Amino acid sequence: MTLRFSRRPLALLAALAVSAGIAAIGSAALAADDGHARLKADLESKLNIKVDSITKSGYLGLYEVYADGTLFYTDEKGSAYVFGNLVDAKTRQSVTEARMAKLNAIKFADLPLESAVKQVKGNGSRTLVTFEDPNCGYCKRLAKDLQKLDNVTIYTFLYPILSQDSVDKAKQIWCSADKAKAWNDLMVDGRAPSGKGDCATPTQKIVELGQKYNIRGTPTLVFTDGERIPGAVPLDRIEKKLASLGK
Q1: Which domains does the chain have, with CATH numbers?
Q2: Given this model, what pLDDT does residue 10 score?
Q3: pLDDT tens digits for 150-209?
Q4: Element (H, E) at 222
Q5: Transmembrane region positions (predicted)?
Q6: Distance CA 188, CA 121 (A)
């Protein structure tokens, strides 16, 4: 997966966690009458982050903190924090991964599909959305795999986050007479788009959309149930997910 947008505050926290294991972050207490307000304010002040939510994890008295698209854990006094996967001992399933999938879900109906490159394969009965950069190597690998997918409608948002050249190619593809062909010519066959890219394009709108949804790397896949999966997902996993949505 190609990464682009960084999250400096949480990257700093991760570095501190590696060097110190468990780091002290203050002694703000959770008062019974103000919920999580004091803990939230303490975290935001000391760690320079914007906390989106704080909820009880149900494990070890820890609180789940969701900030900048990432989860970490702390106690009710904010005396220490923990990064990494929280795993249920009975089910051996990652509680963190399950929560991240729910918190990062995208409301599919809100996606502006008219601003995506559309491909219909077979009867087009299944639907898949991707965010991809024209210069992303993993996206090219995914594009080749998706050629083998049948009975699906694929909407590809041209998400040029790697370079100005990516922006130029995205505009050229969008301005082509056959957008899907221009996309596949580049990603599957390595033939650069020949258009001028001088028409009206939704490029900036798509970049802002990706930032809104905290999409920091390409490719990112989005399914109709709102689940997002980053990276060049194996074709069998895509097939399995699409099949589950059809049941």
Answers
A1: 2-103 (no CATH), 108-245 (3.40.30.10)
A2: 55
A3: 999 999 999 999 999 999 999 999 999 999 999 999 999 999 998 788 999 999 999 999
A4: strand 220-223
A5: none
A6: 16
Does pLDDT of 25 surpass 50?
no
CA angle at 224 for the pair 220 and 226, rounded to the nearest 5°: 65
Mean pLDDT (the chain, rounded): 86
Burial of 109 (0-12, 13-18, 19+ CB in 10 A): exposed
Residue 79, token pair as written in the block: 């005396």
Summarize pLDDT for 34-49 with one digit per residue, the tens: 558 889 998 998 889 9
Token pair of 99, please? Answer: 């929560």
> Which residues contact residue 30 at a Cβ distance below 8 angstroms, ignoring those fewer than 6 apart?
36, 38, 39, 76, 77
HSE of 6, CA atoms in CB hemisphere, 13 A? 5
Q: Length of the chain in residues, anyone?
A: 247
Give dist(CA 196, CA 69) in Å, integer.
37
